[in-house]
Amino acid sequence: MLPKMGDGVRLSADGVAKVLGDLEARLLTAVWQLDEPATARTVHESIIDDHDVALLTVVTVLNKLVEKRILTRRKIRGLLHYAAAISPADFHEYVSRRMVEGVIDFAPERLAACFVDVLAERDPAQLDHLAKLVDEARRRRG
After folding, report:
1. 70: phi > 0 → left, psi -120 to 50 → alpha, else beta; which?
2. Angle, in degrees to the nearest 10, between helices 126-141 and 108-122
3. For the residues 57-78, what does the mean pLDDT come to?
4. Which of 57, 109, 117, 128: CA 20 to 30 A from 35?
């Protein structure tokens, strides 16, 4: 089942926080790093050194991530445990695709040119990779 994501993107944020709130992003990243179902207390303890937040706030935000179908929640030995419902790679692919679809709807005639320009400025080596992807897509579509 796909996550329920809003349409907001914060271009100035880093990583997952571009599409989630800052605390949501921290907690999701922590759950991914724990790599096993974890209690809210365990998740809280994994971020508290870098982010001073109350345990109750962590519980609230973890539950919001469950509502968004990004995390799952189940009882293990009487305690609620949270786990990722989607891998980091699948999450990034899903969000990236939604972002591209949104940009294409905004300015399809400019998207490719801008994408190539920005990619050339930031990582010219990726242009060869992009060319291979374009060739593969053309072959698949016949």
Report:
1. alpha
2. 140
3. 96
4. 57
